[in-house]
């Protein structure tokens, strides 16, 4: 899987020279989702600084957007960030608390990814959001498990800046395949409050 992602990144860079700039956002719907009517945008940032920058940018463009997290630890940390920025009125919701009524025709910004493909898929059944933006970083446990450190080295060598990220349907597809392979090897998922804890108790010893 690591090799797959690295090859994907190199192909994208060599053929299309993908750079995602703050001032010129691009939207590519991620393929393979049951909710094909939803516009998905997946952004892979270098680090937490990049994620926060893209989050604030998208909140500027979509001030009424719903901000959501998969894990309570991420929810609490992002809520503290909002409080520090003086925007405590913006609430960070847990994904399981999203409903079709709440999300209808809305933009949803996920500040992280869930390790399981089916969990992300099933959440959107019956929902009709206008747009879904999903952020992650190479520092996330999610990306580390899928070989993110080597991709980060490639990004550094190519001079990616803090305000740039990878965003392409090929990246989305690679992540989806890794999620599906992981899900096939986890016999019984145990609940967790953070990504780090999730991988520790559910994916210890798993090799993709």
Description of the molecule:
With 208 residues, the chain is an alpha/beta fold. The chain has one domain (2-202): P-loop containing nucleotide triphosphate hydrolases (Rossmann fold, 3-Layer(aba) Sandwich). Helices cover 45% and strands 14% of the residues. The protein has nine helices and seven strands, in the order αββαβαβαβαβααβαα. It has a seven-stranded mixed β-sheet, with helices on both faces. Helix 5 links the parallel strand 5 (107-110) and strand 6. Helix 1 (2-16) runs antiparallel to helix 8. The longest helix has 17 residues, at 169-185. The protein is globular. Mean pLDDT is 84; it is low at 1-33.
Q: What labels describe this entry?
A:
208 residues; alpha/beta; Rossmann fold; seven-stranded mixed sheet; disordered N terminus
Brief summary of the model shown:
With 208 residues, this protein is an alpha/beta fold.
Strand content: 5-15%
Low-confidence blocks of residues? 1-33
* Distance from first to last alpha carbon: 6 Å
Global shape: globular
Strand order of the largest sheet: 1-7-2-6-5-3-4
Count of discrete alpha- or pi-helical segments spanning 4 or more residues: 9
Average residue-wise pLDDT: 84
């Amino acid at each position: 899987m690591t090799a797959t992602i690295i090859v994907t990144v190199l192909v994208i860079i060599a053929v299309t020279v993908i750079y995602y700039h703050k001032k010129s956002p691009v939207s590519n719907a991620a393929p393979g989702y049951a909710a094909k009517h939803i516009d998905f945008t997946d952004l892979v940032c270098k680090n937490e600084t990049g994620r926060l920058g893209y989050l604030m940018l998208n909140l500027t463009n979509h001030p009424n957007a719903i901000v959501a997290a998969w894990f309570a630890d991420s929810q609490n940390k992002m809520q503290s960030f909002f409080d520090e920025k003086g925007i405590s009125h913006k609430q960070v919701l847990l994904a399981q608390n999203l409903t079709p009524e709440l999300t209808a025709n809305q933009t949803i910004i996920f500040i992280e990814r869930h390790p399981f493909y089916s969990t992300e898929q099933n959440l959107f059944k019956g929902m009709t959001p206008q747009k879904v933006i999903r952020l992650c970083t190479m520092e996330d446990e999610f990306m580390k498990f899928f070989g993110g450190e080597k991709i980060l080295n490639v990004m550094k060598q190519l001079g990616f800046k803090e305000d740039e990220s990878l965003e392409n349907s090929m990246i989305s597809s690679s992540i989806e395949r890794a999620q599906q392979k992981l899900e096939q090897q986890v016999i019984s998922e145990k609940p967790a409050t953070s990504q780090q804890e999730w991988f520790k108790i559910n994916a210890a010893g798993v090799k993709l």
